[in-house]
Each structure stands twice: as structure tokens, then as C-alpha cells.
Amino acid sequence: MGSVYRLTLRQLSGRWRLAIMTALAALPVLITLLTLASDDAPSVSDYESAILGAMLAGSILPLVVLAIGGAAFGNEVEDRTLANLTLAPIPRWQIALPKLLAVITVAGPFIAASAMLSAHIAFLGDGRATLAVTLAALAGVAMYASVFVFLGLRSSYAVGIGLLYIVIWEGFFSGFVSGVRLLSIRYYAIALMHALDPRRFADADSLPAVAAVVAAAIVTGGFFLLSVRRLRRMDVP
Amino acid sequence: MTATPSVADIRPTTCGFDADPASAAAVIRVDGVSRWFGSVVAVSDVSFDITPGITGLLGPNGAGKTTLLRMITGLAAASTGTVTVFGEPVRDNPPLYRRMGVMSEHETVYGFMKGREFVRAMGKLRGVADLEGAVDRAIALVDLEDAQHRSMETYSRGMRQRMRLAATLVHDPDVLILDEPLNGADPRQRVHFKQLLLKLKSEGRTIVISSHILEEVEQLADNVLLIVNGKLAASGGFRAIRAALNQRPYHVRVVCAAPRELAAAVVTLPSVDAVHVDPDGAVVILSRNVLDLQVEIPRLAQRAGVSLRRVEPLDDSLESVFGYLVEG
Amino acid sequence: MTGTVFDIGYQHYTGPREGRGRSRRAVFTDGIRTALGLGRGGRAKILPWLFIGVLSAIALVMALVAGAANSFAGPGSAEKMNLPSHSDYNGIASIIMFVFAAVVGPELLCPDRRQGVIHLYRVRPFTGTDYIAARWAAFLAVTTLAVWLPQVILFLGLSMGDPAPMEYLRTHWLDIPKFLVAGIAMAAYAATLGLLTASFTTRRAYASVFLVGLFVISVPFTVGVAEETGGKLGEWISMFNLTNIPVHVNDIIFGEVSEVTEDAPARNLPPWVRVAWYFAWTIIPGTVLWARYRRLAP
To answer: What is the ipTM of this complex?
Structure first.
């Protein structure tokens, strides 16, 4: 498994990619600094919905994970190098798992750093709030990674589908139809954040803690299992 | 006999290999395998056994060779039928890959890797013991020691093929499946490759090569599988296939001192369909029974007092077999 | 040793040979077919037509809501209640439009470069400029379709939902040229940017995500920063909200601020500034795109 992991790490980290991710990770931090520098600081819910909800969780997190996660298997299928891995005498989950872990390893630190710094600055050093935001962000990375790694394996239109999901399902419709939240990774992650620090995010209405954790586990584990299944049943190019 | 001659298994009798059928148990068994994509049938009810030695898989483009190979390697599923390697189903059976080495027709590699890194990574994935030693041996086999520390992006096409072959051999597989392995190989590499394959065969391995380069396959393969339009059109040694195609007469060309006298004598033979004299003055005989010709030509020549300079069959190459079967 | 070449009947093409115009048209047509998935099997059609479907559905819903308002609260009440209409449509649908451009645009440029087919184009008397112009024109046609179709549906829906359709037509016919021009402005902007990002990479996935990221992330960033800074600087920062650039033009054409831009500080800038800004963000990317393809060698 180590070789697949290391191979994928090399495939996914290019100079440009890392530079862009650094820039993206810096944006929420910058805004948070600016917000604090101004006279009227927004309320917790305002900050949460604008910066954490819309910017970080709503766009930067899922898009970064889409680019990296979709490429994990997607590039191999497109380049026809997947057979190098599937022709190895190892169980298929030992191919899917290191791929998923590599995606989380590449995207995770940037997102986590961004979340941690922004929250630390915004909440004036409150440890628990910072931890809540960071862990929720990482959970979001894991969930999106699992879904997009599967999508990259399953379809050559993975990016289109992923963008449709992020921008239209989570972005557009959830603004109009609140029921959409029950089927939305973004809201699971946000619910986890609320659950981890109820004092700070007390006024929010979202899924209860247990439901959020279960949802996160089901999404991450379920799509991982789908990837393994697909590896076993597909015609490898 | 149907329009496209289907020849059931004919055991080869070529030299240099123990062709006793009883001792050569099937390593790869394909049984009633078909594969369709929607309404297009790519492979249609194909059955054969592959034994140790070199088997050539031939056929025109689009005949279903690659699909068939992919089913043999487990990369693609068969719509019906079974494919077994060493008695085990090959699909969804990763441990079997320890004994199989596969080289696909696609040439893409991980460009960011150096040659040695690539072979090493593939070896590691396949659980090779003494990794460094195995990598050294594999790279030496393909004669790329000098280039192994360069990035594969800088390799020529032929070098990339050879490094991929090294990666296929690094775990010392018993079965080798090579899809168009000579793509982009120059003549020197072809010779080297042939020697390599013969060496591997002498070690008792089972090798299946798919190729368009008929000369190589003709010289290398003990057994030939001819796939046309998704069906198995012929299998066996190509000479045996040719002999079985007795619908098609043989052309034999005779160079002699007095062609017209010989022609006049030969045309009286009942086994001869036609005789003509070609522009160079040689006699070309069309016959359905070469064995008879083998006896009769010298006899007739002697009786007519014509000295024979050269007798050569015109059809005895895989190319012509191929041509006959493919063009129908 | 003599050699002979036999005549086996090889024939040169003796039919008419058409000129560059024909090649341009061919690349243009191929561009449209690729973008819309025509002649490429069912799978290729799903994404583009799904987007067009969603865009049209939004227009349909808007028309139905207006019609319902009219029938429940009396004629003309839709306008009185200031329900979303033509002028608001571009703003509401803009992000979907941009995702459409980001997903479909790379299909037109990236595969040709990735698979090396682009060099085949250059073997014929067909320049890089011809190629990119034909591709851009094709994509513009498709994005324009994606913008106009919903607006036409909206117009038809509004006029049929009105108790006196012919009256509605007479009073509102000016909406038609307005939304047509505003639509083309939106389409040109989206098409040019969509193709520009695609010209920088050979993997479609990266081009798509990068463009969407650029749009989606610029929104909360500029909104947040503009709110903090305020004043003239805030207005200019708000101008970097990439999704709003064509919507400002839309506002100017319709003469009223749309729902999406009513909070944007940039709306306070004079119209000529906003229009010039739009042209800058369309022509400069277009020029860069042209420059990248101009020097394409065979």
C-alpha cells in the first residue's frame, strides 16, 4: 500500500498545484484579518455563514478536493496507467485506500491550516472553537475526497458532475430548498462544527451531533466501498 | 466446411520444443468466451488452450485481439464463458497476478519517474523479494542499464517499451501476456527481443504475444491463434493450418532449364489444378496435394531430362495464410 | 537490379478542393457538436443539456410564479411586487452559466492539444488564428443559446401568463432586444474566459475547476473586503467580483439594478466605467487566448 500511496502523492503534488492551494488557503485568513481590523466586527453567525460557510466550506474546500480527488483515479484512467496498479496481486481496497489517503494528505493540511488560522484569529484564540472548525474542515475534506475519488474512477465527466453538485446542488438549491441540506456534505461538516463547540455555535440550527457523525461516516465509508467495488468490476483501460 | 475455415486444435510439430500433448497441460484455458459492447460483438464464442511456449495471437485490426487479451488478463470481463489461468478464474483474483506479467499496448508511463524507479515500483507492488536484485536483472535483460537513472520522459519510444517490458518481467512471472510488444522497436531491438523471448520460453514459461508483425510471430511462435471478426479462425502451427486449408491450392514455383517441357509434363498430373510460366521463365504450379508434387516433380523432370534448379513453395508463410483467411 | 512500380489503381482525390472558409466552417461546426454532445452518443449530451435544462427551468419557474401572482393578486401585480424578471435573470443564472462555460469550454480545446490532434489541423492551410476564431465562435454560439433560450421561455411564459397576452407583447416588446444584447454580453464573457483557462492546461478537469474556483471564490472575497473598506476603494474592489461584471452591463441595458447587484458597491460607479471594465475583461482575455494559439506550429 505504501507504494501506491507514495506514487499518488507524487502524481498529485505539482509545483503549480501546491502554489495555487497555498494562495487559496491564505484567502480566508486574509479576510478574517481584514474583518477584525475594521471597526464593526460581524457576529458569529455572520462570520460563520460568510467566511466559513460560503468561502471555506462552500467553495475553497470542495473545489480543491475536487481537483485533487478527481485526479487521483481520473488521471490514471485517462492516461491508461491504472492497469499498472490493478495488475498487482493485492486486494482492491489496498489500491483505493492509499489513493484516498493521499488525496487527504495533499489537500488536508492546506484546508486545515486555513481553517485553524482563520478561526484562531476570528475567535480570538479560543481553543475549542478553533479545534471545532479545524476538525470539521478535515471531516469535510475526508467526505469530499471519498466522493470525488469514486467519481474520478467511475466517470470521465467526474469534474462536471462534481461542479454541478458543489455549485448547483449545494450552492444554488440549498439557498432555496432547506431540505437539500440533509443530503449535502457541506452541511454535515458545518453540523459537526456546531456539535463540537455548542457554546459558540449555539444559535445555529443544524443536524444533531450524532446524526452528523453518522452521516460523515456513511459518506466517507460508503463511497470508499463503492470505489473498491468499482475497481473489482470495471474494465480497466 | 464453412466459408471461413475453422480448424480445431492441431498439435504443432515444430522443432525445438517438446510438443507431446500429454505433458503440456493447459496453462490458460479459454472456454466459450464471448464479449459484446451493446449490440457490437467483439469476441464470439472463442475456446482454446494455451500451453507453455510461445503462442502468437494474430488478426486484423478490430478483430477482437486486444479484447481477448484483456479478458485473458482479467482486465476486462467476459460477457459469457470462462477464462482460467493455472486452473483458477482470472477475473477478480488478484493473487493470480503474482504469476502473470502483462504488457498492454498503451505506451503511457509515469513521466515523472526515472526508469529504474518505475521498474522498482512495479516490483514492489508485486511483492518481489530481493527487490534491488530483481530490478537489476530485469533492466539487464532489456539492456537499459545506462538509461535507468534518467526520467522516462526523455526515453525514445523503443526505450520506453523495453523499460515497460522490464517492469513486466521484474517479478519473474510464469505467464507473460504481451500486447503489441514490438511497437516502435528498431531492427536491432527486434533481434534482441526475439532472443529474450526464446530464452524465457526455454525456462518453461507460457508466453502469449499479439502482433501485427507477422515475420516475428512466424519465427517465434510455436502455436498461432488467428482471430477474425471476433471468431477463432484457426489455431495450431501455421504450416499445419495451411495444410488443413486444402480448399486453397498451393503455389509451387520451379526454376529449371526447360520450363515449357516441364510444364507440359506436370499438367498431366491429376493433383495439379493449373500450370503457368511466369515472366521470369519459371514454372508456377497450382496444386492441392503437395506431397504428391514432392514425389512427382523430380520423377517427371528426370523423365523429361530437365534439370531442376530450384523448387520453392510460394505460400508457405504466415502472411499468405493470414491473407487467405482474412480476405476470405 | 531493376525496380518496377505497379499500377494498382491508386487514385488521387479529383474532386473540388475548397478553401480556408470551408475549414473554418468545419471546425466551427465541430465545435458546436462537441459542446452540445451532438453525434457523440448519449453520455456526452447529459452534462450540457442538463445545464441548459436547469437554466430553462429557472426561467420557467420565474414565469409561473409571475403568472400565479397575476392570477391571484390581479393583473400587473407581478411587476408591482417587483418579482424577478428579465433584468434579474442574468444575475440569478450567472453562476450556473459560468459553471457551464467552465465545464464545456475545455472540451473544445483541451482534447485536441492533449492528443496531439491540433498539429493535424495545422498541416492544412489553416492557421492557429483560424482555429481559435472558429472554436471561439462555436462556443459563443452555444453559450448564447444557453442564455437566450431561457429568456425566450421567460418572455413567452410571462406573456401567456398575462390575461391579455397581446397587450403584454405590445407594452413589453422592448424587453426582447434588451435581453438579447444583455445575453450576448454574458455569453461572450463566459465563453472567452472559459476558453482562456482551457488554453493553459491540457487536462480539462484542472481548467474547469480553476475557472469555477476563480468565480466562486472571488464573490465572498470581494464582497467581504469591499464591505470592510467602503467608499471609492470599496466600489473598485467590488468590481473584482467576477460574476457581476456582465451583470452590471445587464443593469445598464435594462436601466435598473437587478436583484443580484443591488447590494454591490460597484453599482455606484458611472455606467461607462462599468461597460469599459466589462470590455476590458472580455477583450484582454480574448487577446491572450488568440496570442496563445496564434503561434501554433504544425
So the answer is: 0.84
